[in-house]
């Protein structure tokens, strides 16, 4: 279970880090972080459709999606909007917006839920997990939370930042913390 969660969170964090690096390299202005929580649909659509080989095939009609997957998705993510479905060799992937953040849910070919990647701010983080993090990293602000849900359990990938550093932690639902990345801003 730990290996699966670690692999998922490490892969996702690497993608996010590399995409940020590419943007910063092309920009003439320094990269600025803000607290904006609005997920722009056009950016999500462009990113998802830019590489169909990576994302799978876009499915514009719900009739082509396994009914079990749709039913499970609707029960798990009742407040979701802007839902887009893709099919690949492993099953179906749903990209959707909830609480202003882009999220993903993965289903196998038979419509069984496999895992979800949910993004949100510090305010949605369970209080006990937040307290555990803040007791150790009290000077750092929590800038993003990635909740990784699998059939084997759940873990959080928490992004922390201050003026000089960025830390990315993996935190189990029991509060065990592990530093995945420790970066210096320069």
Give the secondary structure arrangement, pairings included:
Layout: H1 2-26, H2 41-50, H3 52-55, E1 57-59, H4 67-76, E2 81-88, E3 91-98, E4 101-108, E5 113-120, H5 127-136, E6 141-150, E7 153-161, E8 165-172, E9 177-184
Antiparallel strand pairs: 1-2, 2-3, 3-4, 4-5, 5-6, 6-7, 7-8, 8-9
List descriptors.
nine-stranded antiparallel beta sheet, 186 residues, 32% helix, alpha+beta, elongated, 2 domains, 9 strands, 5 helices, Nuclear Transport Factor 2, Chain: A, 38% strand
Characterization of this structure:
- By secondary structure, the chain is an alpha+beta fold.
- The chain has 2 domains: 1-34 and 121-186, Nuclear Transport Factor 2, Chain: A, CATH 3.10.450; 38-113, no CATH class.
- The protein has helices at residues 2-26, 41-50, 52-55, 67-76, 127-136; strands at residues 57-59, 81-88, 91-98, 101-108, 113-120, 141-150, 153-161, 165-172, 177-184.
- A 9-stranded antiparallel sheet has the order 1-2-3-4-5-6-7-8-9.
- The chain is elongated and about 50 Å long.
């Amino acid at each position: 279970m730990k290996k699966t969660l670690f692999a998922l969170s490490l892969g996702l964090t690497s993608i996010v880090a590399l995409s940020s690096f590419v943007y910063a390299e092309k920009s003439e202005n320094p990269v600025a972080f803000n607290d904006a929580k609005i997920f722009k649909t056009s950016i999500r659509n462009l990113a998802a459709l830019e590489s169909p080989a990576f994302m799978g095939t876009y499915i514009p009609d719900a009739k082509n999606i396994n009914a079990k997957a749709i039913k499970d998705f609707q029960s798990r993510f009742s407040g979701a909007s802007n839902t887009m479905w893709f099919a690949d060799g492993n099953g179906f992937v749903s990209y959707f917006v909830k609480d202003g953040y882009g999220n993903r849910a993965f289903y196998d070919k038979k419509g069984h839920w496999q895992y979800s990647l949910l993004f949100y701010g510090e305010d949605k983080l369970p209080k006990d997990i937040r307290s555990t993090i803040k007791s150790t990293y009290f000077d750092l602000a929590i800038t993003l939370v990635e909740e990784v849900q699998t059939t084997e359990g759940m873990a959080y990938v928490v992004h922390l930042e201050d003026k000089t550093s960025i830390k990315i932690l993996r935190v189990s639902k029991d509060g065990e913390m592990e530093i995945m990345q420790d970066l210096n801003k320069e």
